[in-house]
Amino acid sequence: MLMELRAEYSQFGVEVVGIAIDMASKVSDYVRKMRIDYPILVADAGGLDLMRSLGNTAGGLPYTVLLDRQGNPVRRKLGALRRDELLAMLKPLLARPTT
Q1: Which residue of 23, 24, 28, 84 has the lowest C-beta tally within 10 Å?
Q2: CA–CA separation, 22 and 69 (whole Å)
Q3: pLDDT (tens digit per residue) in 10-31
Q4: CB 37 within 8 A of CB 6
Q5: Quick one: what percent of the chain has pLDDT higher than 90?
Q6: CA-to-CA distance for 24 and 31, rounded, in angstroms?
Q7: What's the CA gap between 14 and 36, in Å, rounded?
């Protein structure tokens, strides 16, 4: 779903970035197996601190954060994300003018 969304909305400046909290070799294997075409960053234990600083105080996964064009977190979702939910979160951000 994320790869499809990235392809559909890249013309509007939408980018998908994954942050994995695992061993780099496992992440690499998974990315290759799933043919993920968006950037994946590998975080060490500091990734948990990053999640918490972005509002995930429970530390649960998956955790999605949408950033506006200035890089500010504006939408968050803990748990599995359906396409319709993601589009409902994303579309208002696309309508905002760039500054």
Answers
A1: 84
A2: 28
A3: 999 999 999 998 899 999 999 9
A4: yes
A5: 81
A6: 10
A7: 16
Q: Which long-range contacts (CB under 8 A, 24 or more apart) does 57-61 make?
A: 61/21
| CB distance 65 to 55 below 8 Å | yes
What structural domains does the chain harbor? 2-91 (3.40.30.10)
Look up the pTM and report it.
0.86
Q: Which pLDDT does position 99 carry in this prediction?
A: 56
**Residue 48 near residue 21, CB atoms below 8 Å:** yes
Q: Which residue has tokens 């972005």?
A: 54
Task: Answer for the pair 17, 41: CB distance below 8 angstroms, yes or no.
Answer: yes
Q: Annotate 23-78 with DSSP letters as a single string.
A: -HHHHHHHHHHHT--S-EEEE-THHHHHHHHTT-TT--SSEEEEE-TTS-EEEEEE
Whose structure tokens read 């409902």?
A: 88
